[in-house]
Protein 1
Amino acid sequence: MAEPTEKIPAAKAEWLVATFITVAIFWLHLHFWQNAGGLWRDEVNTVNLAQNPSFTALAHDSFPVFLPLCFKIWSAFGHSDLWLRLLGMILGLLLPLAFWLVARATNRPPLFSLLLFGLNSLLICYGDSLRAYGPGSALIVLALAAMCSFLKSPTWPRAGALALVATLSVQTLFQNSLLFFAICLGAFAVCARRKDFPAAQKIFCAGTIAAISLLPYLPNFIALPQAAVELRRGFSLFITKLNFEMATGFPFVPFSAIWEMLAILVVGLALLSLRRNNSNEKSLAYHLPLFAGVTLAAGAGLFLGFLWFAAAGARPWYFLPPLALAAACFDFGIPLAALPRLARVSVLGLVLGTALVAVPLAHSDLRGHFTNADKIAERVSTKASMRDSVVVTPWFCGITFDRYFHADIPWTTLPPLADHATHRYDLVLKQMQDTNSLAPVLEEISATLRAGQRVWIVGLMSWPAPDATEPPVLPPPPLKDYGWSDTPYMGSWRDRTAYFLSHHCRKIETVALPDDGAPNFQENLQLFRAEGWRD
């Protein structure tokens, strides 16, 4: 049905505002690409895995093979940080494109998705990061667009396209399998309402193909509880909500509540749509509220279940895929065209006004870097001698340091590890079980200082008070209240090393680093220099 004549200008204005926001989003991504700087440890982990994207190597990460393969191909043409980040930006820009494809399939302007997700500086930052969350978010929204297209015309070719996009999606992020299942549940609700069971069978076939593609990872899934025992710290609803608020509180903290209210509104409209059930109505527009509400509710529930099962805590960037899916559901689950003219214009005004505020705020946020480990590695390379020693703490910062430190100077981490290419939690677990794991590091520090050389400490270090007692050696895990977590051990290794240095070193000083005023999002490390031995 055509919209009333008086509403057509409002519709054009909505599409125009969406276009303006999209241009701003592209500009912000370009700005971030130019300023993000060096790669932080998780990104280095991804790049290193790309050199050997085997199923065995992937056991040291939490993503399937799609992204490492992308970086392996991309790295054939260059290895610089700026070149690698260019691919991250390209993959990040797939998301606003995906929002527009959903808009095209549903004939609803992508206002909410572009405003709440596309302009969010934190989501841009981690979406363009060399991790799977950005492309994974884009592909789950592309799967949503493919499902909308299929529901408009449920043919086998469109079912094949749906299966292809779904397979790419689950091969980017494991949790996307649950989110795609939520999309399928929304589509099944539409099929049941239409009594279109052949279409439901085609959706089932597409989902089955995507599920079968995950079978090669089955050994990794089986080994997961033991392989990731250090990370499985339990599920906390409080921590989950806190990280959700960090992810959605842009441009202002209360916007987390707006996300929640819009989600409740979409689910409520889906329930209301059941009161006017008409199985003879085949147009997709009639069924969009139901599709959006079921998909959104199922996606939220399944993702919370995933966090509970993984028991690895929550980080703001974990929420990118479900938030992208939710934002797209806001666009077609809330029928702006059905609102009175004044209400529709008011919503559009609020969207435009918020965008004008959000763009400069995001521009300011996105001038930072992920890490300063590259600058520290350069400083140590130029200032240290070949007979000095370098100690990096905590151990996972050694992944970043290893990428940027090329001097022929011995260095190690707390505790010492044989491999710094990826997150080798299996090696850390062995060191946690060894109560004498620090001995090689302390012996190296002692020998270096006795020889009149210097020890450079890279990372996060807190120095004890003069009257402090020596920190105790922790027993092997599991520990009471901490289980198999490596967190208390990292603190113990750091504190024992700091105590040793403070009692056997004549001089410890902080080395000043170049400061351009930009924040470091993930790794804001310090550099210390210790010299002189005393018994």
Protein 2
Amino acid sequence: MASEDVSFMRALCTGRIESELIVPFPTLPESDRETLGMVVEAIDDLLGPHEADFRAWDRAGELPTSFIEELKAFGVFGLVIPEAYGGMGFGSTAYSRTLQQLGRYDASVAVTVGAHSSIGMRGLLLFGTEAQRARWMPSLATGERIAAFCLTEPGAGSDAASILTTAVRDGDEWVLNGSKLWITNGGIADFFTVFAKTGEAEARRNISAFVVTGDLPGVRIGPHEDKMGLRASSTTMVYLDNVRVPADHLLGEEGKGFKVAMQILNSGRTGLGGGCVGGIKRLIERTTAQATAREQFGRPISSFGLIQQKIGQMVIEAYAAESVVNAVNGLIDGGSKEYAVEAAISKIYATEALWRSADEALQVAGGNGFMCDYPYERIVRDSRVNRIFEGTNEVLRLFVALTAMSDVGAQLSELASSVQGIFDDPIKGFGLMSDYARKRASLAAGFSRSGSHLTGIVPELGRPVAAFEGAVRKLATAVDRILRKHGKDIIGKQFASRRLADIMIDLFVLACVISRVSAAIEAKDPTAPQQRSILEAFSRQALRRVEENLSRIDDNEDELIKEIAAHALETGRFVWDNL
């Protein structure tokens, strides 16, 4: 099987380490690096003068039209659009790095650009016909048209297949009716990727994707939503009232819209991850400056161990998040077709790393952090939604666990059928059972098997590599045991799935960090000793979490928590009031 058809995490759940997917750590070609460097420098020139404006725009709840025009003139809406249509033609790595630079300045700006490129027009890039691309991409590249992604509805959030918006064929047109909720860029967009039911209502996934332009009669935009964070970005409802859409606006195949939506989200998740990395890096700059300048008890607070702990952890978070985001970018740019699980992990880790870092940065700032004159409270508000949109982290954890375990499930299903196979085809039946027995024995005993090593890593990192390999064997054993215990019922065992997902997240991020540090050592990077310290610290933290999650597979308080929750749901309140 070609490497582009293999998922690193799905293989990992079977105890197999597909090293070539992440080793060597991906790097940008020198030609792309030069172009990207100029773009990053130009973004600094574009956004730097507006630093004082971002707070005012946040309070006003709007990016001024004049500033949107500046973004258009810069070309920031054409980042991923091919050069043939007037765009920059950036791959995933260059695009993610650009979002990182935008995220350093203001999240509302980053999400405005990201919603356009990561999801709004991504379906056209991935599934559009040549005629469709030629028709719309030039205006999308210039920002004459800004794009929005219309999937979520009042009754359909994480359960995207339950949307109620309909599209009924009428001759050479489709008639769309419904409403879409929380649409980023809704108030400034003129190009909407809309998902609607095109078949029987009972067929949950009989969904199709359409390009809907703002000039079509029946398209109505709701008022600007008053949000907790990202206040300056445009978020509205979009209403579709008997909107007649020409048949050639169908995006991809009829009835395959669910696949279109998922591929769009998978493909664009590293843009969000890049923005989060940029946010953490800027927080480190602000926090180190604050800790150095502020004195308490006659000395700078930077000299106190608990402050150093916060700053050191922020650096670890930034390094690990950047490592996993860029490793996934490397998979995408390298032509991989199996990166959905890995992309979900990068989104989960980066968004939670930013949230933890924003919270700690505010804490270091003390009372100033709570004041609106300082940027910390806005950063905390802005970063909160990242764990919700583009797939809530809870749903993505279930997706990571259940998808990554699917190959093991298939093997167990095949094994079960081999019992009958012994009578129908003794050689095949006994072969399956003996292969499985050998695998189980080697995992249980901790023996190394073919494909169980992380290869291509410098010898200096032997200790974290060996620890990683040992944890992989434990993961494979745990997956096998849980699937044999629950079978198909694992879908409803969300506590167990979450634990497995958290183990998988830690192991994938650790593998990416190991690969990156190995590359730095091999390249004789003068900062390699510091990077190795980051790896050592992260490795210890991640492996402790892995061991804790493994220990709680059987020994846990899950049923007690569910019992307590059931009581609260039944009573609707906390019943132990002392008054």
Protein 3
Amino acid sequence: MIKLYIVQVLVEHPTHALDTNFDYLSKEELKPGVRVAIVFGYQRIIGYVTGCKYSEKSKEDLEEEAGFKYRYISEVIDKQPLLNDELQQLSITLAKLTLSPRISCLQAMLPPQLKPSSNKAVGIKYQNVIEVIDKDAVLKTVKQQEALQFLNQHPHTLLKDFPYSKSVLDKMVEQKAVIIKKEEVYRDPFVDDQKNPIEYALTSDQQKVVNGIMAKINVYHTALIHGVTGSGKTEVYLHLSKYVIQNNRTVLMLVPEISLTPMMVNAFKHKFGKEVAIIHSRLSPGERYDEYRRILNHEVKIVVGARSAIFAPLENIGLIILDEEHDPSYKQESKPRYQTAQIARIRAKYHHCPVVLGSATPSLESYSRAIKGVYDLYELPKRINQFPLPEIELIDMAKEMRQQNYSLFSRAMQKQIQARLQAKEQIILLLNKRGYASFVRCLDCGEVIKCPHCDVTLTYHKQERMLKCHYCEYQIPIMKHCPNCKGTNLKHFGTGTQKVEEQLENLFPGVKVIRYDVDTTKNKDGHQKLLQQFENHEADILLGTQMIAKGLDFENVTFVGVLNADLSLNIPDFRSNERTYQLLEQVSGRAGRGKKKGTVMIQTYNPDHFVLQCVKTHDFNRFFNEEMKIRRLAKYPPYVHLLSIIIQGKNEQAVSKNANQIKTYLQKQLPQILILGPANSLIYRMQDIYRKRILIKFTDSKKLYPVLETMSDFYNKQGTKVHVVCDFNPYSQI
């Protein structure tokens, strides 16, 4: 009798309606975690095995009992599970926490080449290696004997590196002294063209942090390191990691953005070499595939990467670190909408190890938990070079305008830039563009050129002469005539990095500027190459947006200038004060990190604003206390949790009607919880989808989750005209 196994399979479509296991038959036992090809309806698609059990019944008996025809699995794609037991269980937990289909959680955990929706093979690289099989062989010629001696001294020689002729090698193979075999080669994504990082002896403050965390290294807890910019948090991470791997455990080292990855990778690679794997979205498909397999095969001890690296299949984890823990990039803004720190705590609890959060400007939520004792708090109040934090001057741009200066640069900033250029020192300039875009308006009729699919203006990209939507990728060439009145009086408004670069070149002839933004860093290794050029003094000024505010460490940078400091204060978001403080304090910390004194100038139309005054004096505690008062009065985190419910669909009336129905349902089921809205999302129409938002403020989620599950199932599984998304602790109000 043929053995039969009933295999439970999740299908590849990440929709709520298909978020269930489907039964298939197999003649072999399959492990949970492997991908399979199946026929689903009339389609051949990929599925993910979640369970497998032996059946003593025949196919006919099973079909009679079930009342439907069973299909066999068409193909088994993987020999071994892609995720270990811990991560498979985590996918179930994550689906419940985010109210997302489990398959979307599995897709978030795996690199693109291994996602359930993909069975595309990534080419495995091989190289020819010469292996000695008889090191004492007596060969016929002197040349052959010399070659054998060379191979004995240089085992594992690559064929391409063999310094003797092909005929010599052929004769050695013929005489069975050596063989040529193929070995797999991992692609190495590490570009080692940076200077070796300087290793410092730990300061007494750093040593206290290391000692405190190591004392509880086998206990699940969260520690927050609040260290000023330049206080040596990275060196603390390296010492903790060394201790952990010496005790045969592994380390997850996370940074919020790809732009920060090169420097952290450089520090860890030079300390730990091949024991480090890298995971982030800019790796080539082959590199990501190889790095993932190195981790699966237990060939690494440390994983360094951005947000998705939290799902790396490391085992026996002894430490999880989130550097720049305050950064909003740690929040996943698409399904499943997880917060990386929450996943870190789940994994740390499983492995009985600490989560270490580090920042010069910790989030209000983290710092409030730390001062209450929920987290262990460690302070690093001084820079490791014992130099003071840079002096900060606030420049009143309203005063500049009253004195007829309409340039992007105040007269004081122009003098500072000129002085630094003459002294052969380097400069970082931040264009605070958050919430601000370059757009085109007709001066005849007032028409602003908008995206036809989203409620946003099209952004002007001068270099490509294109107008682009940054939400749906719609783009058109720059026009000569207004689409409304056909006039030709079109004007470009707003300030982008390209425009600032032009003005710098006009003001300072011969200046060399590196523009560091999304456009210039989109290619592979783009971040790395530009930063390396600046490190090598191939440019005088590094000009960029928020990407340049964190993590960069250049000892010759003595001046930092901030343009448009007010813009991020005026965004309709309760975190606007916090984000502005973090941005300005972080970018200020790029100045004076070497032996030369640093200076910072911040241009603003509101120099008396308490956020800017706190930045000027580097007074985090004052900012924290002032902002906490505002949060308490307005009932915002950390005093409550937030849930954003987004109701979206192509039919505007259906969206409005269902949003009101959901509000009524929630008020009835949760009378004690504060429910605001529904209101239009900040971008009401995106990609031709209308979007309403309901905001819930709550302190206890126990009663909330069952109500939300019922609501989500009704709207997302029943085929209604709208789709509902639940976003816990949202970081974006868009």
Protein 4
Amino acid sequence: MSYSKGTKVVNPEEALSKIRDGSIVAVSGFNMLTTPEYLLLKLYELYKRTGHPKDLFFISDTLPAAPNMGFDLIAKDIYENKDYGFLRGVLFPYVGWSEYTQKLILENLIEGYTWPIGIMAWWFREVACGRPGVLTKVGLGTFLDPRYEGGLLNDLARERKTYRVTLVSLDGEEYLLYKGPKPNVALIRGTTADEMGNVRMEEEGILGTVLNIAQASKAGREKGLVVAQVLRVTPFGGIKPKEVTVPGPLIDYIVIAPRERHKQSASIDYDPLIAGVVIPSKSMTAYASSNELNTRKVVARRVALEMSRLVMKFGRPIIINLGIGIPAEVARVVLEEEITDYIFPTVESGPWGGDALYGADFGASRGPYAILHMPDQFALYEGGIIDAASLGFMQINERGDVNPSVVANRVTGPGGFPVISSGSPRIYFAGEFTAGDRDIEVKNGQLLINKDGPVLKFVKTLNKTVWNASEGLKKGQEVMYITERAVFKLTPNGLKLIEVAPNIDIEKHILSKMEFKPIIEDYELMDPRLFKEGKVGLKEEIEKALRR
């Protein structure tokens, strides 16, 4: 491949060879969305060939990886070949999609730290402003609180504390300060660059924190190195000023990547609906509805029903957040019920509306009508600008504390959960009642538990506390825990059972599958429409209420 003289467009080795040993390297990436995979792999190839740069510390706004992609490929090679010279440590909000990064952390082979996604996104912006870090109430009373674990994931992290969380008192109130050294290298990604280095992101699924990562690297007296991966280069003037995400003077080098190392998301090469190049009509979005009636859809419907009630209560449309897992499926129920005029879903990575994707593609949305930069999206959540959020859960204790994803002897990270759950005025934790091998059907308006899951999710002791119910009650948050067979409400005295599914025996199917007994007074049957084929009829219900 040839490169034009007098431009910033260079081959990867020319750019990456400027990275010094011991650098802190900031990498954009929400799973594979905005991940500069080509730069990452070329950087590791350079180390394997020359031994430099070595002793690198990587930080990211989320995780620049998916299984067998991006950083996970590097971690796998490091782990299998036992050559630990390249990598000193990581600060990633989520490592669930990188099995080998988890292994390196768990076996204490590298320093391991984790902060919430929103905190990391803001941290890059705060560092760019020359401030000491992020001051927030997010994380109080959880494993992020330094009185507990402080986001330190292993002994090396506890010993070195390269990145740390400090308890601060301000006007008699407790806050957490997330702080650490600024990056001196930034590896970012866009779609098109001009020869001045201006970067446009027209084919990317999100905008992420790309601009702020570049700014953080350039902040202060030590001006860091910024390298951008793109798919193509256009002559200067080929990008309109308002289309520029990162101005060229902030970027030192541009590297053109092959399409196979610049996928839009983990499993999608390019979809114009995800990029926002095409905005589908409401009739076109009907393809996103899920026709299979199962326990997951029952839970998603129950969440959508609660959100519809908010619309009717307030007499206006509402803004919501949907987390990973079953909550993401609420968007499909909203589409299927044709209530997109009343419920506006957002995904933490930046999209508004559309059909939120699942698994390693989470973060992308097909057919969004707006995509914000990630720090601005998270302002919606901590600031309580949204009306409600639905988030997943793995464990819940009798106080109502929640662990969304942390399994014993495994490292995942909190993702966006702590910020969203801290700020949303209403939270609907959504998940199936048990886990493991099970056979549960939704048939003829009934919930049939042929074989229940052996893994209990309502437990006495959490693996980690990631949302603290006491802090939520102090803020006046309204909280419900929604499953396919029972619905609970948070009270100052713990969980209260308020609804039970049709055909369910409370003792056999609920209490015997909990390690604690909830408050049981009066309760109702869950809405029978949730367990029947066809639409629930939420649109008609909302429109009738709003006409009154």
